[in-house]
Design a protein that fits this description.
The chain is an alpha/beta fold. The protein has three domains: about 10-185, NAD(P)-binding Rossmann-like Domain (Rossmann fold); about 200-290, N-(1-d-carboxylethyl)-l-norvaline Dehydrogenase, domain 2 (Orthogonal Bundle), CATH 1.10.1040; about 290-420, Rossmann fold (3-Layer(aba) Sandwich). Helices cover about 40% and strands about 15% of the residues. The chain is built from 16 helices and 14 strands. The strands form two sheets. It has an eight-stranded mixed beta sheet, sandwiched between helices. Strands 11-10-9-12-13-14 form a six-stranded parallel beta sheet. The termini are far apart.
């Protein structure tokens, strides 16, 4: 095996590409990050980025000497391995738009060295990679493991690498193997189609866990049980485990899992296979995402609408990210009547909404004189709030708290209504 480390290129400095590039630099590789957006590259050359992830900015600065950013496609000519690392956009129905990915592949494929390896890191449907016009021994597909809010952790400490190959029985290129083995995790080579489906399969199993947990949590709300009491019994079952997605939430947000459910449903439809399971997960997610909306109308008096104030704490679809794509908070805002809405999020400071919203500087400012407070994102900052102080500043007596963050003293517990997931 060669002891010379390969030069790694990443085409697309999106959420996926940048976190992957910085993690690779942290592992000791020289990285070339390419993007056609001059503004994005200009910021990265100054070790700046608008992407928010724990440790990303710190490691971007730490590894600046190993990170070369450019908006010139020629910068990738020196690379031994080039990843196609664009985020795959999805529309409002969760369908993927692969047009930017196809365009980037064509651009990169024409300009990199003939001997370089091309690796598709973007999530694509089965059958995609094999259609790319490049020598099979120079073409791979790699399953990305990005989780918003934990992107750097996942990039640095992958559980395994799932690698799509033209022929999984042939040895992996030594340069690629050298790079992957630096992450000290199992390598799972398989045919292109298997690897492409593997990522979708993972998301479907996660969707099954989330949907099952949410279904049972709702049953708890109806019969007087408490889902929080049940969770430990599931985590101690080896067939389910302590890392299972069994905490209730507001559906499948962010877009990626929903996209994969739609992909499998469509493949099933086109090939004559049953697609009722992924379709049911999609429908249940959409139903669950409306839980806060249902709670609002249970406690809203339309006759007092002109003087009704709502506070929303958290706009991102999950903690530790700036993304509001498919955010339950945004869906709640759009479903509210024409009333006063104040909101606060530690990172999201701009929200494109047809509703008039006042963005506050703190959770305390947002909650003042409100009739009802929604906690829509479980930020760490919210876990340490003085909830009694917030309660004393409110005009109303209702918290809608899906994540059980509100903690009140005994006196306030008797005065306030707190609605949580999985408990009546």
């Amino acid at each position: 095996m060669s002891t010379i480390k390969p030069i790694i290129g990443f085409a697309g400095m999106t959420h996926l590409g940048l976190n992957s590039a910085v993690a690779s630099a942290e592992k000791g590789f020289h990285i070339v990050g390419f993007d056609e957006n001059h503004s994005v590259i200009s910021d990265l050359q100054k070790s700046q980025t608008a992407i928010n992830e724990p440790d990303l900015h710190k490691l971007l600065l730490k590894n600046k000497n190993s990170l070369e950013f450019s908006s010139s496609i020629d910068s990738l000519k020196k690379c031994d391995i080039v990843y196609i690392s664009l985020d795959v956009p999805t529309d409002s129905s969760g369908a993927s738009d692969l047009t930017p990915v196809l365009r980037m592949i064509e651009l990169v494929n024409k300009n990199i060295s003939e001997n370089a390896l091309l690796v598709v890191l973007c999530q694509v449907p089965p059958g995609f990679t094999r259609k790319i016009s490049r020598a099979p021994k120079k073409l791979y597909y790699q399953v990305e493991t990005l989780i918003f809010g934990r992107a750097m952790e996942r990039a640095l400490l992958p559980e395994r690498f799932i690698i799509g190959c033209a022929d999984p029985n042939s040895p992996i290129d030594e340069r690629y193997k050298n790079y992957l083995e630096s992450f000290a995790c199992p390598l799972l080579p398989m045919r292109y189609e298997s690897a492409e489906l593997a990522k979708t399969a993972i998301n479907l199993f996660l969707a099954a866990s989330v949907s099952t947990a949410n279904t049972l949590a709702e049953i708890c709300e109806k019969i007087g049980a408490d889902w929080k009491e049940i969770i430990p019994s599931l985590q101690l079952d080896k067939r389910i485990g302590k890392f299972a997605y069994i905490h209730p939430g507001l559906g499948l947000s962010g877009g990626n899992i929903e996209r994969d459910l739609k992909t499998i449903a469509q493949i099933g439809y086109e090939n004559g296979a049953k697609n009722n399971i992924p379709t049911a997960y999609i429908e249940h997610s959409q139903y669950r995402k409306k839980w806060p909306i249902r709670k609002f109308y249970e406690n809203f008096d339309a006759h007092k609408s002109q003087n009704f104030n709502v506070c929303i704490l958290g706009l991102a679809y999950k903690e530790n990210t700036h993304s509001v794509k498919n955010s339950p908070a945004v869906e709640l805002i759009e479903a509210l009547p024409e009333i006063s809405i104040k909101a606060y999020d530690p990172i999201v400071k701009d929200l494109n909404s047809r509703k008039k919203i006042t963005l506050s500087d703190s959770a305390y400012d947002a909650a003042k004189n409100c009739d009802i407070v929604f906690i829509m994102t479980p930020w760490d900052e919210f876990k340490s709030l003085d909830w009694n102080k917030i309660a004393s500043s409110m005009r109303g007596k209702i918290f809608i708290d899906p994540y059980r963050l509100v903690s009140l003293n005994k006196e306030n517990q008797n005065q306030f209504i707190i609605k949580v997931l999985g408990k009546d």
